[in-house]
């Protein structure tokens, strides 16, 4: 890829353990262009979320190595102050659990506008933009609900709030960590549709983290399949689904229940061990 917005090379992440450092990300490579949607896919515990957190340097106890370049600047070597300026402004993050990600004692409006206010945008202008964005994301009576608290919103509405926080500063890259977890199918479809629209309108790249192969098929352009903290297969989604090369990818696809399939046969399970 000649014009990658995000280029990750040999990314490794280790965390302290009782017997010494434990490496959980092993030399991950990936590229992501502007306007592209890339999925990190694999089982729970495969290293997807840890890879995303390493890109953003969110875990202070992690030891990171390799290169994570955003428009050519290595994020792993940026001073902490400059890295904080990247988060929110250049890279937005949608957390997996919107209720846990939101401050229960602050209004959702205050939380939505903070990425703008801390960068010097006047509060009135930030509020106006926040209300417009919340309405755009499908929250009815956005002006009034702007002063409500997280517990007053449903799961799907809280997910919209978290997306608003992540995109209000017009980031170049959005990292969405399991954005449809615990949502019903109808709300899942609407959230993914919103991400599609935002990507097209803003030429924003999306790094989607998910274990749901159905979502990957309907949303992403390319996919990186991860297992045990390693990227075992990378390529266009259509190619991976049509002719997976790695045995783990084939096992993941075989484990997906299919409508109209032979329900008398046991589901395929993925064996432990190996790479």
UniProtKB/TrEMBL annotation:
GO terms for biological process: peptide transport. It is a peripheral membrane protein. One of its GO terms (molecular function) is ATP binding. The keyword Nucleotide-binding applies. It is found in: Cell membrane. Keywords: ATP-binding, Cell membrane, Membrane, Nucleotide-binding, Transport. Residues 6-253 form the ABC transporter domain. SUPFAM superfamilies: P-loop containing nucleoside triphosphate hydrolases. Belongs to the ABC transporter superfamily. This is ABC transporter domain-containing protein. It comes from Acrocarpospora corrugata.
């Amino acid at each position: 890829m000649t014009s990658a917005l995000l280029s990750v090379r040999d990314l490794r992440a280790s965390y302290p353990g009782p017997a010494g450092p434990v490496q959980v990300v092993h030399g991950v490579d990936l590229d992501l262009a502007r306007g592209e949607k890339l999925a990190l896919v694999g089982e729970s515990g495969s290293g997807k979320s840890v890879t995303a957190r390493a890109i953003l340097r969110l875990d202070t106890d992690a030891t990171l190595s390799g290169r994570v370049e955003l428009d050519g600047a290595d994020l792993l070597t940026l001073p902490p102050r400059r890295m904080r300026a990247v988060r929110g402004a250049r890279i937005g993050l949608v957390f997996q659990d919107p209720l846990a990600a939101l401050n229960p004692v602050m209004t959702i409006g205050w939380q939505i506008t903070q990425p703008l206010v801390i960068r010097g945008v006047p509060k009135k202008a930030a509020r106006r933009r926040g209300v417009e964005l919340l309405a755009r994301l499908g929250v009815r009576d956005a002006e009034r609900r702007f002063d409500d608290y997280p517990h007053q919103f449903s799961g799907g509405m809280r997910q919209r709030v978290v997306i608003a926080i992540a995109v209000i500063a017009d980031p170049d890259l959005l990292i969405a960590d399991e954005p449809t977890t615990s949502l019903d199918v109808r709300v899942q479809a609407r959230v993914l549709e919103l991400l599609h629209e935002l990507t097209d309108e803003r030429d924003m790249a999306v790094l989607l983290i998910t274990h749901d192969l159905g979502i990957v098929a309907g949303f992403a352009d390319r996919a990186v399949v991860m297992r045990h903290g390693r990227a075992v297969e990378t390529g266009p989604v259509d190619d991976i689904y049509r002719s997976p090369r790695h045995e783990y990818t084939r096992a993941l696809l075989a484990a997906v229940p299919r409508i109209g399939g032979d329900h008398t046969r046991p589901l395929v399970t993925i064996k432990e061990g190996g790479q």
